[in-house]
UniProtKB/TrEMBL annotation, chains A, B:
Annotated signal sequence range: none
Lineage summary: Bacteria, Pseudomonadati, Pseudomonadota, Alphaproteobacteria, Rhodobacterales
Transmembrane parts of this sequence: none
A Pfam family annotated for this UniProt entry: DGOK
Domain of life per record: Bacteria
Keyword Kinase listed: yes
Ranges in a coiled coil: none
Keyword annotations of the record: Kinase, Transferase
Database matches in Gene3D superfamilies: 2-keto-3-deoxy-galactonokinase, C-terminal domain
Name used for this protein in its record: 2-dehydro-3-deoxygalactonokinase
Organism of origin: Sulfitobacter delicatus
């Protein structure tokens, strides 16, 4: 029986409550797995990682390059922007099970901001698209708009849009598997963009329609997303107007932003979030090895 | 042993997850009790009411005038505005334990809105302040601005402000029992009022500051409340600018709105939420008896 190829390191992303793991041999992916994980400390992160990788039969104390760990657990001080998109170094934390190499996040003073995971997706995109200048939009629980120039993250702005959609949408029946109501999304988007200050009022109106059972779930969900993304586009206008744009995110969320931007005459390149995360982790590891 | 006075009806308000009960004899309050209640149907409401009133030793099938029941359980069709502030009629629902008289809510088409409980607090305020014209602000999980003229609710506008403060504030240490950081509240309020479209971005900045542990809990909570109430005041400007104003709400929330309005040169009368609720329920009952 031929011996299976043996992983010599793991690439790991922890973001938005979701753990993604790639078993790597050099730059080749041998295997991967992912899952939701309830994690609130470095210890519980190690537990979740051990449990998720049990089937991969990786040796103990394998090097693990990990993106997205909250600064409060990891002691990996976030790097202040502007700075190189690809982290030049990692913070080593040895545990019984794994030798962690923690990729630090990014910190901005004004407006106050913190990236914990998104920065590595950005690094991945730039490692695959050399000399790309423009603005990258990263939808997620917290959406991020990052201005990129000469391989550096110059500035960024975050919005709680995704989390608000999840919290406020959870009240109604979840229409996740049904098609989006495009018309309702487009109308709410246009309305949210032109009168963003009415956001909290619109959310209350949506709530009323739901309480009265007068709006189908998918329509309500589309209006909720359109309203919140519209308000975000209004506030982030300086980031996308007249810029070269890329959207990196999970397919469902990214497609909403692509649609919204296209309607404003601002077409964007779309890139897959997981693929960018892996490329970013690999780029950081390569940089360290150099 | 003298016989205790016997209640001949109950006044009940269910609002924001909180059940308030007054045991009444005519217009006199014999006793009262209140508590948080997890209620999601008419049956569970009856259970919660039975449990809360067990100590009051009220007879079975007592008449109960109740405000705040969601339309989906009660079949009490909300009344369309504009309409009399004091509901002229109730919807009778007989159960094994109580004879309910359900006070209907208010419905507005454009912008879509629904009041389920706030309308009775408004009715109470107007029953105590005859011929009062102006705008009543009712802070709560959903805050409401209602325009009152000649005893009618002409129009209203709701905002999810209170619920967003609760959801987003729950992340940090709860500073409920500590004093508000006035300076942080005032700054965030002013900022929220002047640039309401930046709301989702400001919430993300607050999140970043908390994640970095760089902001004390009370300061973060004050900034959160100031930001959201500022954005609400911006959107509700037509409701408060140059108007006679009253604020009806729980003390903690009402005092934030009083402070915010005073800073805009718009002083308001403050009235206690529970007292107005009871007065409103009594007014509806009196109207029915006439």
């Amino acid at each position: 029986m031929a011996e299976a190829a043996q992983a010599d390191w793991l690439a790991v992303e922890w973001l938005d409550g979701h753990l993604s793991v790639w078993a790597m041999q050099g730059s080749a992916v041998l295997d991967s797995c992912e899952g939701a994980a309830s994690v609130d400390s470095l210890e519980s992160f190690i537990d979740a990682l051990s449990s998720l990788t049990a089937d991969l039969q990786v040796p103990r104390r394998l090097p693990v390059f990990v993106a997205g760990l909250p600064v409060t657990w990891s002691e990996a001080t976030p790097r202040p922007v502007p700075c190189d998109a690809i982290a030049p170094d990692t913070v080593a934390v040895k545990t019984e099970s794994f030798d962690l190499q923690i990729i630090p996040g990014l910190r901005q003073r004004e407006p106050s901001g913190l990236l914990q995971g998104a920065e590595t997706r950005i690094a991945g995109f730039l490692s695959l698209n050399k000399d790309w200048d423009g603005v990258i939009c990263l939808p997620g629980a917290t959406s991020v708009w990052a201005q990129i120039s000469a391989g550096e993250v110059v500035s960024f702005q975050s919005f709680l849009t995704g989390e608000l959609i999840a919290i406020l949408g959870a009240e109604g029946p979840a229409p996740k598997d049904t098609a989006l109501d495009d018309t309702a999304f487009d109308e709410a988007l246009s309305d949210g963009l032109s009168r963003p200050e009415r956001l909290a009022g619109r959310l209350a109106s949506l709530r009323a329609d739901r309480a009265l059972g007068e709006m189908p779930g998918p329509t309500a969900q589309a209006r909720l997303a359109g309203t919140l993304i519209g308000a975000e586009l209004a506030a982030a206008r300086a980031y996308w107007l007249g810029q070269t744009l890329a959207v990196i995110g999970p397919e469902a969320e990214a497609s909403l932003y692509m649609r919204a931007l296209a309607q404003q005459g601002a077409p964007a390149t779309q890139a897959d979030a997981k693929r960018m995360a892996l490329a970013g982790i690999c780029a950081v590891r390569r940089g360290k090895a150099d």
